[in-house]
Here is the input.
Amino acid sequence: KQWYQRRVRAAWHKSTVPILLLYVFFREFRPSEPYLTPYLNETKNFTKKEINNMIYPIWSYSQLPIFLVVIAFTDTVKYRPMIWFGALGYVATWVLLVAGKTVLEMQFMQVTYAIGTACEVAYKSYVFVAVTKENYSKASLYLAGSSLLGRSLSSFSCQILHDYAKVSFLQLNYLSLGSVSIALILALLIPPPEKLERYATLLPTSSSETLDGNISVLQRIKMQFDAIKENVYLSYKSEQTRRWAYWAVVTSTLYFMVGNSSQSLWKDLEKDKEKRFNGYVIGTTGLLSSLASWILTKYSKAVEHTKASVLSLLTMAMAASTFIPTVIQNLYVAYVCDALFNIIVSCCMTISLFKIAHSLTTNLYGFVVGVNATVAGMLDLLVTFIVMDEKALSFNPRQQYWVYTGFAVTCSLVYTLFKCSVCVRRRKDDAVFRNRAIEAAPGTSGQLGRFVEESAENDDDILQA
Here is the structure.
């Protein structure tokens, strides 16, 4: 009997990756999402103002606190309960979408949806401890492929079923409910990891040893806080890490904000319900974004030599892609601009994360990514409250896009001006050094002059970039 139990347990653990791949696929296969706004407006009869200013902002308000809770407790509860929690959140979301009738129920739907999206980090962390280090990269690649397949297939099938099979938006939501329910069942079948490792230990070794003793809760909290401060210092003491973290935060914030408003803008711009192609656009955009990210990963040498000024230019391109649809008020122009925006976001995030990983001298990559996501969530929450909430400015989608354009332009200009000021200050310092060196060693002025000329040429290259 013990031999049989060991064989069953071994077979269960060998099926970890296949079960996880199926879970991710069904988790992402939600064919009703490309037409969420039309569904709420046309089927559920909510007004555009209720959808845009009362329902959608709740996701931004809920995402950040739930994400922090998930980050804090994922390792403590051994990963699987957080995966179950996220799957249950998705099931609750589509139950409310199908059965809910009031604004309050739809607001609660946004909270449960935030639970599902925030718990995405749980299954990614689980993979790291469930497979060997040699197979981790391959397993991560398979999971990314399964996620892309689920999203793309759901978007394309949504459009095909709606256009040719005349499947209603309500029926598409029933199909999404069935898919996330299967994902919940698969989540319950995920085996516990055989060995538990931490990617980056939050507490230093000395602190961890002290925790074994009898200490008070306040002392424990203080030690945790001190450890976080130490990790922040270790992670961001490098100027290069701070620079690329800045762009990661800017890109993530823009992605959150535009993603929360894009369908509302499309709904305002559509003139013929028979000529809207949300599913095709979202599916194609996902494939192109993944292709762009893959190309950058493939040619990592080029990414390694990419300057931060390139991301400043790409951010200006993102600003253009959010501004053009508000001027040329055409649905298909908005589709193209949204695709361009998401492709640029994918490129910027790939470059930023690559640079952050290569700039860190400690094993704190996951910690830095978590801090960046937290800061981006805080910025998104602040901007969402100001421009979307009914208690604040309560802008319509077109006005919201103007704010997003201004945010992108401001972030790009702030970095450019800061970089120029740094270069100018360095030139002044070099000039002072040159004058002092000439005064101290007049006999070597010829050699020193050539050295100063070469340094000046390097500074000119920096200023030109």
